[in-house]
Amino acid sequence: MANLTRFNLRDKGAEIWAGWSRPVRTVFVLAFIVLIGLMPFAASWGPTSFLNTPITSFQNVLVYPVGMFIMMALGLNIVVGKSGLLDLGYVAFFAIGAYSQGILSTLYGWNTWEVMPFGIGFAMLAGVILGLPALRLRGDYLAIITLGFGEIVRIVAINLSVTGGPNGIPGIPNPPSVFGLHFDLMHPETFFWLVFAMILLVIWMVRRFTIRRPGRAWEAIRQDEDVAALMGVNTLVYKLWSFVIGAAVGGAAGVLYASKVMVISPDMFKFDVSILILACVVFGGIGNIWGVVLGAGILAYMPERIRFISDARQLVFGLVLIIMMNMRPDGLLPRKKREKITEKGAK
Amino acid sequence: MNFSVITSQFWSLVLQGLALGLIYALVSLGYTMVYGVLRLINFANSEVFMIGTFATLYLEVHVLGYATNSPSLHGAKLVWTLVLVFIGSMIACALLAMLVEIVAYRRLRARGANRLASLISAIGVSIALLEGMRIITISRPMTTPRLLDKWSFGEFHGANFRIDTLMAIVVPIIIFVVLDRFVTKSRLGKSIRAVSMSEENSKLMGININRVITLTFCIGGLTTGAAAFIYTTVYENTVFNVGFNMGIAAFTAAVLGGIGNLRGAFYGGIALGMLEQFASAMLGSQWKAVTVFTVLVVVLLFKPNGLFGEAVQQTRT
Questions:
Q1: Eight-state DSSP code of residue A227
Q2: Which end of chain B is more exposed for a tag (fewer CB within 10 A), N or C?
Q3: Which residues cross the membrane (chain B) (predicted)?
Q4: CA B31, chain centre distance (Å)
């Protein structure tokens, strides 16, 4: 038991990784990407068919919730994990992205690729509007403000006519085909590849940020905001950046989600989703990309897999959270105890 | 925007706002007391409230055997029945709150885990309780028997002084006065304040930290249970997710008044209750939550620690 709780897979993995030469790493990464790319076919291939989910088809589950949750958890990880700001209303940015796609595509006939930059832009704008007043506050006050913001976005969506009120927006078109890949009901695997590509993009972006100036500023703010401010870090600006970048990822996920499910309603953007994404981040290992990916993957996939106990699956989910947090408080793959800032990114 | 309701229904809105706000204030104690000692949001408190409403229902229907259509009670029998159910609900909630502390917080605290880990385990407890009750009640809303006949004392400028409204105002005020005396004067109360100032120093002064934390959860549970009883008696129904909105409102009230502060919870609750009543009357009830949160943001911008919060220097630990 003691061994199990102290064993740190992340450090072990980093050790092995450090021992590899550059070509070996490239081959490994490419093989890994191909392997994940083949995931949608895992359910129909004998040895891995136990992965199959009873109600929703496995390929759809891989897109939503699994892929989407991994993406949003990575976005929230920038806010909660990197700069230590507790955001309980992350679903708001997801909703803003989804409604951008819903409104712009049904009213103005824009396709997903055209809406994407606007969806991300609106989410970032919302991040600035919320962040400027809220980020001046400390700790748990930020939590309640963001929680309130998440509720406000949902309530506004229920009460406006342009968002379709409580019924939401039906008939949102799928993304148009690119490179001969069709995005529609018959091809959930292409959606998965699209989400996977975006997840890779987000991971790359987060890794770049982490070793460069913003990452160091976030780390300083997370450890001690007062000291960071004294050392000349403009805390408000960097907190706002982490908030807005997190919002952008949420917005992008929202645009994709709306064009996948084709109909959105305010019910999909409840407080529970914010909590679930936060649970994904903390469960997997807050601040560590691979931990977050693993945590989000498990927490999004598990309720779908155990749908046969349909009524009790959320109950089991709650119990798993309690037991796991008590066994591994730092998550499945915790970050290094002393996060080292590499000299590579220093200017 | 409808301003005329303010003048025509002013006293009615004040009375309703006061009654609602004091229920919020009682529940927000479950957040604010725990926050004061642990610096953690007690996320499971909304579900403690939910269990309290069902405990009230269970006591009335299954233990005392009243059906939903039973005639109302009168005289001494009414008083002792209500007191019994009241105490029962408080005890059920206090036990549950202490259990939450043991399950969600104690082990993590002993290991010095980060704050978010406790937050998630508390959320886990909350989900488990909510879903457990949803499965037991099959998602059905339930009506409680009307034990207290809702007779009115009279009217004052359109405000109807009903017995249950008065109860919802008087009982919380008594609880707050008693609790305030307890926390400022008694030895245990002083130890709670000591721990909230500095855990390390309290330990050095010979205070049993674990006992104080359990006591804090117990007090939070007692007041939440009282609120659950009052809520159920006034609104006469409950459902498995009744705690969600109550929890958010109570947490907002705690922040509005200054979290970690007993009197802040009292005034924050009243302010929130009034705000909700006036906002629903003027803008329509669908914009209630939006107004509340906008006001909360504005208040926090000018008073970053809430209306009655301690000075910033003290909260930075």
A1: H
A2: N
A3: 20-41, 48-67, 79-104, 116-139, 159-183, 212-234, 246-266, 278-302
A4: 8
CA dihedral (A246, A249, A251, A256) in degrees, to 10, reads: -160
The pLDDT tens digits of the residues spanning A170-226 come to: 988 888 888 777 787 777 888 888 899 999 999 999 999 988 899 999 989 988 888
B272 closest CA partner among B7, B82, B31: B31
For the cut 70, the answer to whether the pLDDT of residue B11 exceeds it is yes
Contact B304 A137 (CB under 8 A): yes
Q: How far apart are CA B235 and CA B146, in angstroms?
A: 10
B290: chain A residues, CB-CB within 8 Å: 152, 155-156
Would you call A337 an interface residue with chain B, using a CB distance cutoff of 8 Å? no
- State the virtual CA torsion across A326, A330, A331, A335 in degrees, nearest 10: -170
Is B187 an interface residue toward A (CB < 8 Å)? no
Determine the Cα–Cα distance for residues B44 and B118; give it in Å rounded to an integer: 11
Give residue-wise pLDDT tens across range B165-220: 889 999 999 999 999 999 999 999 999 989 988 888 998 999 999 999 999 999 99
CB within 8 Å: B123 and A312? no
Q: Do B296 and A329 touch (CB under 8 A)?
A: no
At residue A337, the 3 state secondary structure works out as coil
The residues pairing with B142 across neighbouring beta strands, listed in sequence order, are B238
Q: Which of A59, A170, A73, A172 is nearest to A119 (CA)?
A: A172
Query: ipTM score here?
Result: 0.83
The alpha carbons of chain B give a radius of gyration, in whole angstroms, of 20
The answer to whether A137 faces chain B, any CB pair under 8 Å, is: yes
Please name the residues in contact with B187: beta carbons below 8 A apart, sequence gap of 6 or more.
none
Say which amino acid occupies A113: W
Distance CA A269, CA A272 (A): 8
Contact of B117 with A81, CB cutoff 8 Å: no
Which residues, 6 or more positions from B5, have their beta carbon under 8 angstroms from its beta carbon?
B13, B281, B282
Scan for tokens 């009640």, then name that residue: B137
Q: Are A142 and A85 in contact (CB under 8 A)?
A: yes
> By the 8 A CB rule, do B22 and B175 touch?
no
Q: What are the structural domain ranges in chain A? A: 57-269
Q: Which bin fits B160, alpha (ψ -120 to 50), beta or left (φ > 0)?
A: beta
Q: Please give the distance of CA B258 from its chain centroid, rounded to a whole number.
A: 15
Q: Beta-carbon neighbour count of residue A281 at 10 Å?
A: 31
Q: Which of B161, B168, B164 is nearest to B226 (CA)?
A: B168
Q: What one-character DSSP code corresponds to residue A287?
A: T
Half-sphere exposure of A313 (CA within 13 A, CB side): 13
Structure token digits, residue A45: 């291939």
> What would the pLDDT profile of A60-107 be if each residue is shown by its tens digit?
888 888 899 999 999 999 999 888 888 989 999 999 999 999 999 999
Nearest CA in chain B to A6: B111
In the chain, the amino acid numbered A86 is L
Of B118, B135, B286, the CB nearest to A155: B286
Read off the amino acid at residue A83. Answer: S
Distance in Å, alpha carbon of B223 to nearest chain A alpha carbon:
22
